[in-house]
Amino acid sequence: EVQLLESGGGLVQPGGSLRLSCAASGFTFNSYAMNWVRQVPGKGLEWVSGISGSGGSTYYADSVKGRFTISRDYSKNTLHLEMNSLRAEDTAIYYCAKDLSGVVGASGVGSWGQGTLVTVSS
Amino acid sequence: QSVLTQPPSVSEAPRQRVTISCSGSTSNIGNNAVNWYQQLPGKAPKLLIHYDDLLPSGVSDRFSGSKSGTSASLAISGLQSEDEADYYCAAWDDSLSGWVFGGGTKLTVL
Fold first, then answer.
1. Is the terminal CB of chain B with fewer CB neighbours within 10 Å at N or C?
2. In A26-44, which positions are buried (b, 16+ CB within 10 angstroms) versus exposed (e)?
3. Percentage of chain A surpassing pLDDT 90?
4. Across the interface, do B92 and A105 touch by the CB < 8 Å criterion?
């Protein structure tokens, strides 16, 4: 059974940094692309970033490009999202999401974690 | 404003059939597969339909998907109260090099 467990969310001041992690289990980690998708409570879904199964290709939404960095640790089967220069509009629930294939954009998100809340406020 | 356009809400009586539309462009739906997600209140989204019309294992066959040109649709037949949820369409956008979602449709079972 696929399990995705996010951690690292919390309250951070504008301009600050935060690192989200997602511990993955129940599948061959290096065979699947991984994504981060966020959702402002009560609002719609917004894709944030994706990384291929090999880690060789990364993609970002324009809204976070240059501020967020996605990475994966194959030794720990963990996905990360390094978030810098945080803004109030980054406040959202961040979901870790497993792709259906090893290539970002080929198939889409198949499994989702339960999410971790990031609040950017002074 | 979302790249993919969905109606904000739909409603129908139990045991009836409802469809939810998703409109895009040639850079997304017109050239790539569409996925549909169901989000129950307070829960994470769940994959409902992938590759336009395929049901993942475990998803009820009351759900079906279709696509024509730059538009896609999700149909739910035999509506049940537990189908009340938010539904989202998604597709890869070649111009943006990223996934785009519809704004979501809230289904109410009357």
1. N
2. ebebeebbbbbbbbeeeee
3. 97
4. yes
